[in-house]
Each structure stands twice: as structure tokens, then as C-alpha cells.
Amino acid sequence: MITKVNTVALYVNDQEASRKFYVDVLGFEVRTDAQMGEMGRWLEVAPPGAQTAFVISDAKGFGKQDRVGDSADITLTCDDVYALHQSLAAQGISVPEPEKQDWGTFLRVTDPDGHTFVISS
């Protein structure tokens, strides 16, 4: 079962300038700051105590230069990605195997209109 909206991606030109704005100006806290390999840095910030966070994403690293200032990729959270994968597959939903990265394990699910969500645990 999905338990919350985890992150919303904000594509930016300069992650460090954005980090300073959200943390130093708005008072957010850094939740995660880790390397993601070729795609660069996973920088997650949120207001203290909030369940949902922003991922300040390097637009160039994600090939999303055209989406700077216009982004909203949604990441959902579940208790067990592997169990969710099995449940979806059993329902006939075409879903790739979960992927494991330094920052966590996730799978991608695409709705009937082509919107893709990342679901992590």
C-alpha cells in the first residue's frame, strides 16, 4: 500500500545555489545529499518535520534542461518495493524489476496515460 508522496523533483541549473535558497533562506533541512552516478547528485530538502520533500535535481544531468522551473516528477513511498512489484505483476501490470541505488530501492510504474511514477521503500 502506498503511504505518502515522498518527493517532488525540481529541475535546476545550479544545485548549490538552490540548496542555499531552500536551506539558508527558507529554513528547509537537507534530508539526503548523495551521488547518483552519471546523473549526478541526489539533493533532497524539506521543511523540518514534513513528509514530502523536494529533490533539487541538476537539469543537465537528467537531460531536462527544458524543464528548469517547470518540473514535478513524483516519487511515492511504500513499505516494501519487492512486495508491491509482485502484487502489480500478479494483477497483470507490466512493471520492471525494482532497482537498487545508493539512496534506496525503487521501481517505476506507468499509468494508462504514460505518466511514470517512481515508488521507493
UniProtKB/TrEMBL annotation:
SUPFAM superfamilies: Glyoxalase/Bleomycin resistance protein/Dihydroxybiphenyl dioxygenase. InterPro entries: Glyas_Bleomycin-R_OHBP_Dase, Glyas_Fos-R_dOase_dom, VOC_core. Coiled coil: none annotated. Signal peptide: none annotated. Residues 4-121 form the VOC domain. Pfam families: Glyoxalase. PANTHER family: GLYOXALASE/BLEOMYCIN RESISTANCE PROTEIN/DIOXYGENASE (PTHR36437), GLYOXALASE_BLEOMYCIN RESISTANCE PROTEIN_DIOXYGENASE (PTHR36437:SF2). This is VOC family protein. The lineage of its organism: Bacteria, Bacillati, Actinomycetota, Actinomycetes, Micromonosporales.
